[in-house]
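Standup notes
- DV: blocked on the single-chain target, sequence here:
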Amino acid sequence: MEIKFVAKNMELSENAKEYIEKKLGKLKRRLNDISEIRVEVSEEKTKSQKDRFVIRIVLDCQSTLIHTEERAETIKAAMDKALPVTERQFERWKGKMEDRAKNAMPTGVAMAKENPVETEEPEERKPVVKVKRFAIKPMTVEEAADQMELLKHDFFLFINAENTKVNLLYRRKDGDYGLIAPEIK
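- DV (later): unblocked, structure below
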């Protein structure tokens, strides 16, 4: 397993790297399913000094990403807050993988049956300011729901393994899920 460090708006000292590696060493012993750990450390200019340092930990577990972000006054404090959260998320993911192996279906996945309602275009269209590229792999709707929950996103774009088409899974206001499956006419 490999740990990649990324520092933004700051230089990451060797002491900080060693501390993070030591903390993640505990994680590395327990987690054989992780192929890569990415640690992003950044310093933000905030009014509150208690939120000055941000640590983002991203675990790549069999092409599933587990993301944690914590803020604190020091790098060490942020790492101490982020590690237990990461461990809980991993245990939750591992439990879901075990349930899936036992053919348990997650509950609460509702498919959108109606076509999305078209809305009028705004008079002035805002420019695209960021383009995000990412690799996607075929997966089931249940796997996409799990991935969306792990990333704490409100939507998730994926290739549906059942029909090899691009689908969009999203969280509805009532907490259920909706699925947008395009049809070519």
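- Follow-up: The helical segments are 14-30, 75-101, 141-151.
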